[in-house]
Amino acid sequence: MQFNGLLEKILNGDRRAISRALSEVENSTSTGEGILEGISNLIGHSYRIGVTGPPGSGKSTLTNQLTKLLVEKGFRVAIVAVDPTSPFTGGALLGDRVRMSEVGTNQKVFIRSMASRGSLGGLSQKASDAGDVFDAAQFDYTIFETVGVGQSELDVAKAVDTTIVVLVPESGDSIQAMKAGLMEIGDIFVVNKSDRVGADQAVTALQVILSMRDHDETTWLPPIVKTIASENKGIDLLFDQISNHKSFLNEKKLFEVRRLDRLKNKIKDLVVSNLRKEFWNAERKLILESKIQNVLEGKVSPAKVVQELIDDFKSSVIY
Ligand SMILES: Nc1nc2c(ncn2[C@@H]2O[C@H](COP(=O)(O)OP(=O)(O)O)[C@@H](O)[C@H]2O)c(=O)[nH]1
Ligand SMILES: [Mg+2]
């Protein structure tokens, strides 16, 4: 496939081209870089939603139902599912894909699983690059599903326009969420599995915690939505709240702020990863190897070695 042909096919929504582009981007190939470069002025159309929360809270089920609703409304939807990978096999769990297969065959829907471990470079950067591909391919919504554990997963969930945190009624879930840093990043909170006892208490507990968040009249107060994803209940209310949040971002001109933040982070990340590549050449790896024993034996401090490496790097840069 010619590179230019590939770009054109992506813009036309060709599924095989999109698939290929996503792989190139995920593997950070030069073709991938070229694609991102080629589409960089064509994005900004797609609305990005992050869905996060503890394992088993119903994120995939909810994403599935929300996708169906969006498709019914005439939208095209892409899903980036960041699968937790098993440390034993290194393989992505299949469960998510099986459950999501319900929407998987729909031509208006594109699902992509992404490994959370073993990817080169930042996970959130990879996910956001995938989002750019879907954006260029004219998807109206891109939903990023990640487990709400670990910083890199949280980074994925918050590098979007609207972040949805999915919890369940079980007592203590909101406390756990608070510990995991989920309370700060949610724009909308969902108490899923509201068919279970304690849903209303969970909502009250959440309200208490959320009221402690810094806010004034200009900040968005996160609504709490009760859903039963497995019975497709409450999904319309969730959609209404997403729309409310979208309007709020527009009104307050925060849409641009979020996108500028994303761009800033992207550029910062790229600087770091490019510098890292340039920095660790064979010569400096040798310097490190030759010093490490002395560091271990306490003859020289780590900071000294760092300085030596940086001096070497600076002297190699031609001004
Ligand atoms: N009782 C009940 N079960 C649900 C609900 N939503 C999802 N489930 C079930 O909870 C389990 C985990 O759901 P899943 O979507 O895979 O959770 P995820 O790990 O957060 O993606 C599945 O067996 C779902 O069928 C709900 O609203 N009520
Ligand atoms: Mg899931």
Could you explain the architecture of this structure?
With 319 residues, the chain is of the alpha/beta class. It has 3 domains: 1-38, no CATH class; 43-256, Rossmann fold; 280-316, no CATH class. It contains 14 helices and 7 strands. Helix 5 links the parallel strand 2 and strand 3 (109-115). Helix 6 packs parallel to helix 7 and helix 13 packs antiparallel against helix 14. The structure holds guanosine-5'-diphosphate (GDP) and magnesium ion.
What is the fold's blueprint, element by element?
Blueprint: H1 3-11, H2 15-26, H3 30-39, E1 47-53, H4 59-72, E2 77-83, H5 95-104, E3 109-115, H6 123-136, E4 141-147, H7 151-158, E5 162-167, H8 173-179, H9 182-185, E6 188-191, H10 199-211, E7 224-226, H11 235-251, H12 254-279, H13 282-296, H14 302-316
Parallel strand pairs: 1-4, 1-5, 2-3, 2-4, 5-6, 6-7
Helix pairs in contact: 1-2, 2-3, 2-6, 4-5, 4-11, 6-7, 13-14
This protein binds guanosine-5'-diphosphate and magnesium ion.
List descriptors:
seven-stranded parallel beta sheet; binds magnesium ion; Rossmann fold; 319 residues
